[in-house]
Design goal:
- Helices cover 28% and strands 28% of the residues.
- By secondary structure, it is α+β, with helices and mostly antiparallel strands.
- A hairpin with a 2-residue loop joins strand 7 (68-71) and strand 8.
- Helix 3 runs antiparallel to helix 4 (195-211).
- The protein starts with a strand and ends in a 5-residue tail after the last helix.
Length: 216
């Protein structure tokens, strides 16, 4: 499974990102009084700001109370969530939390962090002219990176068991060359907004997940 595609310019700026199959991680638990999580009641979300347990971490959003969807700081039936959580007689309560998706600003920040890591890895390598980071592996994903001769980096985040990603990266580079570099209206180092590139990238990823690398 492919989670996402990112393109970083030679100066380290994020110029394109595409969320493909990002899993929605939800955790549902029954709580007794008093609630051992500290929540922040913002206008848009109710967020965990202190305490964690059973897969619920700081930054997760409260999505439902006893199966009733949370909208902002109120339930779908109009009741205030804060009032429900503060009253002991309402417990035990079944609460469902969800990890929020990254915002565009967060993705830009992470892309800017990868750029110096790539450069440091190249310098630390005992071999001269190191290619830098090609695979960054974690327990739940792998980040695959392909750098062109001009310094543009193509990154794919995928499942650890996903194969053929190196060939997929080169196919994405071909699409970039065809629909971005050959576009007279596209300026290098600028965010890539091209409908044809988006459409063909989506087709490529769908075909890759369905048929594997041999048929893309």
């Amino acid at each position: 499974m492919i989670y996402g595609v990112y393109i970083v310019s030679k100066s380290g700026g994020l110029i394109f990102h595409h969320d493909h199959s990002v899993p929605r991680i939800e955790t549902e638990k029954t709580f007794s009084y008093p609630l051992d999580l500290k929540l922040d009641f913002d206008k848009k979300f109710i967020t965990v700001v202190f305490g964690q347990r059973d897969g619920i971490f700081v930054g997760h959003h409260l999505m439902a109370v006893n199966g009733i969807q949370v909208n902002g700081t109120v339930l779908e039936d109009g009741k205030e969530v804060k009032e429900i959580l503060e009253k002991e007689e309402n417990y035990p309560l079944n609460l469902r939390f969800c990890r929020p998706r990254m915002t565009t600003n967060e993705k830009i920040f992470l892309a800017s962090m990868f750029y110096p890591l790539f450069a440091i890895a190249s310098q630390l390598s005992p071999e001269p002219k190191s290619s830098g980071i090609q695979i960054l592996e974690a327990d739940t994903f792998r980040l695959h990176c392909f750098q062109t001769l001009t310094g543009v980096k193509f990154m794919v985040v995928a499942e650890p068991i996903q194969t053929g990603v190196e060939a997929l990266l080169k196919k994405i580079y071909e699409l970039y060359s065809d629909y971005a570099l050959k576009n007279p209206f596209y300026s290098l180092e600028q965010p890539l907004r091209c409908e044809l590139f988006d459409q063909n990238l989506q087709l490529l990823l769908d075909n890759f997940e369905k048929n594997g690398i041999t048929n893309i």
